[in-house]
Amino acid sequence: MDTKTIYARLNKVFRDVFDDDEITVGPKTTANDIEDWDSLEHITLMSAVQREFKVKFTMGEIASMKNVGEMADIIAARAK
Amino acid sequence: MKELEFPFDSEYIIKKRKSLRRALLADGSTRLKKKIAVLGGSTTNDIVVYLDLFLLNHGIEAEFYQSEYGQYWQDAMFPGEELLSFAPDIVYIHTTNRNILNYPTTADTKEQVDALFEGEYDKFRQMWEKISDTYHCPIIQNNFEMPFYRLMGNKDCSDYRGRSNFLTRLNDRFYAYADSHEGFYINDINFISASYGLKAWSDPSYWNMYKYAMCVEAIPEFSANLSNIIKSVFGKNKKALALDLDNTLWGGVVGDDGVDGIQIGQETGVAQSYYEFQSYVKSLKSLGVILTVCSKNDYENAIAGLNHPEGALHPDDFIIIKANWENKDRNIIETAAELNIMTDAIVFADDNPAEREIVRAQVNGVSVPAMDGVENYIINIDRNGYFEVTNFSADDLKRNEMYKANAERAAQQASFADYGEYLRSLEMTGIIDDFIPVYLQRITQLTNKSNQFNVTTKRYTATEMEEVFNSDEYIRLYGKLIDKFGDNGVVSVVIGHKNGAVLDMDLWIMSCRVLKRDMELAMLDRLVERSRAAGIEKIRGYYYPTAKNKMVKELYGSFGFDKVSEDDEGNTVWELDITGYEPKNHVINVVDNSAVEN
Question: For the whole prediction, is pTM greater than 0.90?
Answer without folding.
Answer: no
